[in-house]
């Protein structure tokens, strides 16, 4: 089951578009511009990073900080950590 969940998440990251990012940003209280959403979407489509590996997550958050700002990247990291804990998925993340 964990392989299925991992592949589902990886595929979603590869397919996410800027409108979805803007929607999720509003839903979770992030303020990003349309241009930033487009840059994030492009980055996720062009890079084959594994969000379940710490090294790859760090790279993604560094790029997010570069595209947006350090506070947005920290908030996103905190949100991801909260979601992982709330759903009991710590075992999937290295």
Characterization of the model:
- By secondary structure, this protein is mainly α.
- The protein is 73% helix and 0% strand.
- The chain has 5 helices and no strands.
- The protein has helices spanning 2-15, 18-28, 34-46, 54-67, 70-86.
- α4 packs antiparallel against α5 (70-86).
- The longest helix is centred in the last third of the chain and has 17 residues, at 70-86.
- The chain is globular.
Index terms:
mainly alpha, 94 residues
Radius of gyration: 13 Å
Percentage of β-strand residues: under 5%
Q: What's the tally of helices?
A: 5
**What is the ordering of alpha helices and beta strands?**
HHHHH
Ends: how far apart?
A: 17 Å
What integer is the average pLDDT? 94
Helix content: over 70%
Low-confidence stretches: none
Main sheet: strands, sense, barrel:
none
Oligomer: single chain
What structural class should be given to the helix and strand makeup?
A: mainly alpha
Number of separate strands: 0
Overall morphology: globular
